[in-house]
Amino acid sequence: MAVGASEVPSPLEEFPVTWRRVVTDPHGFFADMPQTGGLGPPTTFLAICAGINALGHLLVGFGLRGALWVFVGEVAGAFIAAALFVVIAQQLFAGRAGFEATYRVVAYASAPSVLFWMPFVGILAWLYGAYLIVRGLERIHGYDTTRAVLTLALGLVVLWLVTAMPTRGPGWF
Predict the structure, then answer these.
(1) Contact 148, 165 (CB under 8 A)
(2) How many Å apart are CA 99 and CA 121, to the nearest integer?
(3) Are 97 and 35 in contact (CB under 8 A)?
(4) What is the distance between the alpha carbons of residues 64 and 62, in angstroms, rounded to a whole number?
(5) How would DSSP label each residue in 143-156?
(6) 45-77: pLDDT as tens digits
(7) Domain residue spans of the chain
(8) pLDDT in the model for residue 1
(9) Distance between CA 133 and CA 164 in Å, rounded?
(10) Contact 56, 116 (CB under 8 A)
(11) Given this model, what pLDDT does residue 10 score?
(12) Is the pLDDT of residue 155 over 60?
């Protein structure tokens, strides 16, 4: 059945168009991206990317449990990263956007994660995802590139410290 003028395409039908635009025209995508409108569309986009990433990890031998961890980690990590980026942006660099706009950037910047499971290509995809976050942070917070890169870098350092910290207590230094 053809989609009529009054019908709204499903998220699965919209996904390839959105994915292509994020990956090939990040400046244009983030310039046109609304900063409000709810978390539903970006979360759906993120979940599809995370699902493809998880299936790829399943194919390369992570097993079902590993693939599930990849999916949950990517989705939960996006919420945590966005919250952390907002705190850093607003407290250190006078960023002007709130959680929703920052989360939208992180969710749509997950587009390259569909390739994370591929050896060697996954590293390049991760770096491109970081680039997409920088472009999105510039747009929504009104930043220059330096502040956007510092927001991303500080956020990644904090995430790394928190996840690398052993559970033995305060003497981990």
Answers:
(1) no
(2) 30
(3) yes
(4) 7
(5) --HHHHHHHHHHHH
(6) 999 999 999 999 999 989 999 999 999 999 999
(7) 40-161
(8) 46
(9) 23
(10) yes
(11) 80
(12) yes
> What are all long-range contacts of 158-166, with beta carbons under 8 Å and residues at least 24 apart?
158/84, 158/88, 159/77, 159/80, 159/81, 159/84
Is 102 within 8 Å of 82 (Cβ atoms)?
Answer: yes
pLDDT tens digits along 3-56 = 555 577 787 889 999 999 999 999 999 999 999 989 999 999 999 999 999 999
Token pair, residue 125, equals 């995809």
CA distance 91 to 110: 25
What is the pLDDT of the chain when averaged over all its residues? 90
Report the predicted TM-score, pTM, of the whole model to 2 decimal places: 0.88
Spatial separation of the C-alpha atoms in residues 90 and 88, rounded to whole Å = 6
Torsion angle in degrees (nearest 10) through CA of 37, 40, 46, 50: 180
Amino acid (one-letter) located at 114: V
